[in-house]
Specification:
By secondary structure, this protein is an alpha+beta fold. It has helices at residues 5-32, 53-82, 91-117, 129-155, 164-167, and strands spanning 36-41, 44-52, 119-121, 124-128. The protein has a domain at 9-28 and 54-114 and 132-158. Strands 1-2-4-3 form a 4-stranded antiparallel beta sheet. Strand 3 and strand 4 (124-128) form a beta hairpin. The chain is elongated, with a radius of gyration of 20 Å. The two termini are 28 Å apart.
């Protein structure tokens, strides 16, 4: 069966989105509740997250490491099930590579999103909760797609097919 790298990209992006939102819910429930504040502008009340920027970046790196590893290992497992005899990179390379890529993409996309959708003032990253959910979904989508795509390429590298018609006269 021929490898489908575009399918790996789409499935990885969707699973990254879901995993990103799940990690967001876990991290918020675990320690983000004290950082919630309400911004009142006229008659509008907007819930915002005003956490220390350094703690936010550490949580993004940890979530990227965990999410990247989970997606990379799952992609490797699926590739092994689809074609067990194919030559591929070992899991000891694919797992940590997925973790690093997930953390790097998270640290590129998330601070940029906080800067665009919120603000960083007095050492705090301030962003609306709805914007934070959207930013987390976008970060998970991008990171999950990249990690799954690269992991699938390493787990099922394309091999040239034999062309018997070329040599026949």
């Amino acid at each position: 069966m021929k490898p489908s790298y575009s399918t790996a990209l789409v499935v990885g992006a969707v699973s990254g989105l879901v995993l990103g939102l799940c990690l967001f819910a876990f991290i918020t429930a675990y320690g983000g509740i004290p950082s919630l504040t309400a911004v009142v502008e006229g008659s509008d009340v907007t819930p915002t997250l005003a956490a220390a920027a350094s703690a936010t970046w550490v949580m993004i790196v940890l979530a990227g490491l965990v999410g990247g590893t989970v997606i990379a290992v799952a992609t490797y497992a699926v590739a092994r099930v689809l074609e067990p005899d194919a030559s591929s990179a070992p899991l000891i390379i694919i797992g940590p590579l997925g973790a690093v890529i997930g953390a790097v993409i998270g640290m590129v996309v998330f601070p940029l999103g906080i800067t665009v959708m919120g603000s960083i003032s007095e050492g705090n990253a301030v962003i609306g909760v709805a914007d934070l959910v959207i930013l987390t979904a976008i970060t998970g989508l991008v990171a999950g797609g990249a990690v799954a795509w690269l992991s699938y390429i390493l787990a099922r590298p394309s091999a040239p097919a034999e062309d018997t018609e070329l040599l026949s006269v």
